[in-house]
């Protein structure tokens, strides 16, 4: 059975465009998350710690050992 060579070009284009789109989406999501992978299966304790980290550092993934919440910025 002969191979339809004409179908390889659109197939390669489709596969490569899906790959490029997925890679760019992954880079975008990680850039917004301080280059860390996303969190899955969060429990109430995890959500409470995320809220605490957000109050202490201003970002959901930031962590600090200082237990005092900084004053809000005036800007």
From TrEMBL:
CC annotations in GO: mitochondrial inner membrane
Major location category of this protein: mitochondrion
Membrane topology: Single-pass membrane protein
Localization per record: Mitochondrion inner membrane
Pfam families: MWFE (PF15879)
Highest taxon above the source species: Eukaryota
InterPro entries on file: NADH_Ub_cplx-1_asu_su-1
Region (Disordered): 53-75
Ranges annotated as spanning the membrane: 12-29
Keywords for the protein's UniProt record, in alphabetical order: Electron transport, Membrane, Mitochondrion, Mitochondrion inner membrane, Respiratory chain, Transmembrane, Transmembrane helix, Transport
Family named by the database record: Belongs to the complex I NDUFA1 subunit family.
PANTHER family from the UniProt entry: NADH DEHYDROGENASE [UBIQUINONE] 1 ALPHA SUBCOMPLEX SUBUNIT 1, NADH-UBIQUINONE OXIDOREDUCTASE MWFE SUBUNIT
Functional summary from the UniProt entry: Accessory subunit of the mitochondrial membrane respiratory chain NADH dehydrogenase (Complex I), that is believed not to be involved in catalysis. Complex I functions in the transfer of electrons from NADH to the respiratory chain. The immediate electron acceptor for the enzyme is believed to be ubiquinone.
Protein name according to UniProt: NADH dehydrogenase [ubiquinone] 1 alpha subcomplex subunit 1
Organism: Mycena indigotica
Organism lineage: Eukaryota, Fungi, Dikarya, Basidiomycota, Agaricomycotina
């Amino acid at each position: 059975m002969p191979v339809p060579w004409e179908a390889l070009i659109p197939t390669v284009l489709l596969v490569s465009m899906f790959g490029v789109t997925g890679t760019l989406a992954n880079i975008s999501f990680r850039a917004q998350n301080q280059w860390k992978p996303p969190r899955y299966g969060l429990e109430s304790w995890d959500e409470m710690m995320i809220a605490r980290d957000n109050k202490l550092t201003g970002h959901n993934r930031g962590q600090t050992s200082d237990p005092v919440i900084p004053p809000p910025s005036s800007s």
